[in-house]
Amino acid sequence: SSIIAISSASRSHRAAFSRGTVFWARAVIMAMMCVCLLGAMHAQAMRIEKSESQGSDDGAVLIDRWKGEDARVWLERQLAQEPDNPKWRFLLSQALFYLGRYADALAAVDALIEDVPHPQFHGFRGFIAQTIASTETLTLIESEHFRIFVDTDRDAALVPYIQDVLEQSYQRLGKHFGLFPKEKILVEVFPTTGTFYPASSLSARDIEVSGAIGICKFNKIMLLSPRNLARGYRWTDAISHEYLHYLIVHLSANEAPIWLHEGIAKYFEDAWRLPESSWLSRRTESLLAHALANDSFVGFKNMEPSLVKLDTTYQVQLGYAEAASVIDFIIHSMGSKGLARILQDLSEAHGDGATGAISRVMGYEFEQFEKEWRQFLQSKQLQEHQGVRLPRFTLKEGDQIPAEDLRAEIESTTARMHTRLGDRLRQRGRDRAAAREYNRALDKDPYSPYLLNKLASALMTQQRWSSALQYLERARMLAPDYVTTYTNLGRLHVALQAYEKARAALWEAVQINPFDPLIHQYLAESYRQLGMDDQAQQEQQLFERLQGSR
Q1: Which of 154, 220, 384, 488 has its CA 20 to 30 A from that of 515?
Q2: What is the CATH number of domain 139-190+201-379?
């Protein structure tokens, strides 16, 4: 599943943020963005020395808690009394930025620079201008509770679905956490890595190693379009994951540490579509079982300042597994109300962070909490499953899908040899012989979803539907986010006239990579046969649009 970054961190952890983008607060631009490296100029621009701060810091505190409108009102009231105060003027430009009013933020900091040409202000101005440039092709789509900016040309395949995913997240997660924000939440979907990197501060390394394809900071959600990855990613869960970070910031007054943030977001990221969390996947269970057996946990302290910055994909995945398992333990011990009480305690700013909040809510010291959590994991009798693989997030080069790397898809050298032979046979129309070669490859690498789909596709060409279905179901079990499996399942069920099953499989494909025209072709047919004419027309139009752009 996707690994998503969160850019908020508790003020109690800010001392650890010696590098990275820094957040302006209490008239001192304090470090809060735990995954960001926007560069030295931007970092410098967002620091104001404490010696320059005078008077109350309510405006900075409000910005720190992502209460941009309240901060704007407070700061404008201060400026009515002290119109030339550079502290209030700078904070106002930041409050406007947090409201998504980029042009107003730019105008405010420009006016400030005219009077006080400080290099720090120039740096912040550069970041605002860069954000404006990164979002200039985006069009506003407004739903009841969200302001969604998306490139409706390049990312047309997202447009029919993104509002529903966010609104379902709003309702279902609101019931879980008792928070239904009144302000409309800003969401930006970036069409290219070139626009995403400067706006989010994430890098190609963060995406391909850590899977950080979304981030929540600056009081908004930012997401890289799944069109940029070779096989897409579960973008629907990703955007819901980021919305969870937004809720956590507001529920905890931005005091939650990274491990608590990521644990909650990971545990509940699929709650918008499922009645119960599926956080304990085969991969997650295997990672936790291995860590228990070898005493090789990442550890809460090592998750700071960001899981995304851990060295390897394995460490990142294990960190998310650990964090989610802690949430599972809290809910098992205290119920969902216990989790809400921890966030409420954090919002009261007792000064001892999550360790103190957990101690007060759970009734024992944090060291005991860690022991109880490990015993809880031991009691689950977790197992390492065969064939579990770490996720791969391969970026496209431009709009080109990278050539298939059989070494990445298939572990066995002999299996790769049989696969190449099978591909050549299929090109000659010899599907039966090709299926035999794919079977031989599977004997050597029985856990490859790539091979399972190769074999299923060859069998479907021969109309051997039941045999193909067997292999596709195995592929789905082994790799639930492998998009090709769902496309093939949709094709198979359409052929068998099982249109509701086809619709369900193809909806899974849409959640991962909606830019494949075949998905929408099969969906259009399924909806037509199910008597859902409006949906059929929508999918047909999307199919024709995507097909025409190729």
Answers
A1: 220
A2: 1.10.390.10
Distance CA 29, CA 446 (A): 54
Distance between CA atoms of residues 62 and 76, nearest Å:
13
Tell me how far apart the 2 most distant CA atoms of the chain are, in Å: 84
**No. of H helices and E strands in the chain?**
24, 6
User: In this structure, are residues 26 and 57 in contact, taking their beta carbons and an 8 Å threshold?
Assistant: yes
Residue 398: count other Cβ atoms within 10 Å of its Cβ.
8
Under-50 pLDDT residues of the chain: 1-55
**Residue 307 in contact with residue 258, Cβ under 8 Å?**
yes
Query: Is the alpha carbon torsion for 143, 149, 153, 154 positive or negative?
Result: negative
SS3 content of the chain, % helix, strand, coil (to 5): 60, 5, 30
CA atoms within 13 A on the CB side of 2: 32
Nearest Cα to Cα of residue 146 among 180, 172, 197: 180
Task: Provide the pairing of β-strand 212-217 with 220-224.
Answer: antiparallel
pTM: 0.89
Phi and psi (nearest 5°) for 93?
A: -60, -35
CB 198 within 8 A of CB 130: yes
C-alpha to C-alpha distance for 518 and 49, rounded to whole angstroms: 57
At 105, is the secondary structure helix, strand, or coil?
Answer: helix
The phi, psi pair for 141, rounded to 5°, reads -120, 120
Q: 21-133 and 443-548: same fold?
A: yes
How many other CB atoms sit within 10 Å of the CB of residue 49?
A: 10
Alpha-carbon distance 229 to 459, whole Å?
A: 28
Specify the amino acid at residue 19: R
Name the H helices within 464-510.
465-478, 483-495, 499-510
What is the CATH topology of the domain spanning 443-548?
1.25.40
Does 21-133 carry CATH code 1.25.40.10? Answer: yes
Contact indicator for 37, 53 with CB cutoff of 8 Å: no
The secondary element (H helix, E strand) that includes residue 457 is helix 449-461
Q: What pLDDT does 43 receive?
A: 37
- Please, which residues bridge with residue 251 across strands? none
Cis peptide before 83 (omega within 30 of 0): no
Domain extents for the chain? 21-133, 139-190+201-379, 443-548
- What order do you get walking across the sheet with 139-142 strand by strand? 3-6, 212-217, 220-224, 185-190, 146-150, 139-142
Q: Residue 347 burial (CB < 10 Å; 0-12/13-18/19+)?
A: middle
> What one-letter code names the amino acid at 457?
S
Fill in the amino acid letter for 363.
Answer: G
Q: State whether the Cα torsion 93-98-102-104 is positive or negative.
A: negative
Which two tokens mark 106?
A: 């730019």
Residues in contact with 309: Cβ distance below 8 Å, sequence separation at least 6, in sequence order? 35, 206, 210
Task: Give per-residue pLDDT as tens, 292-348.
Answer: 999 999 999 999 888 888 889 999 999 999 999 999 999 999 999 999 999 999 999
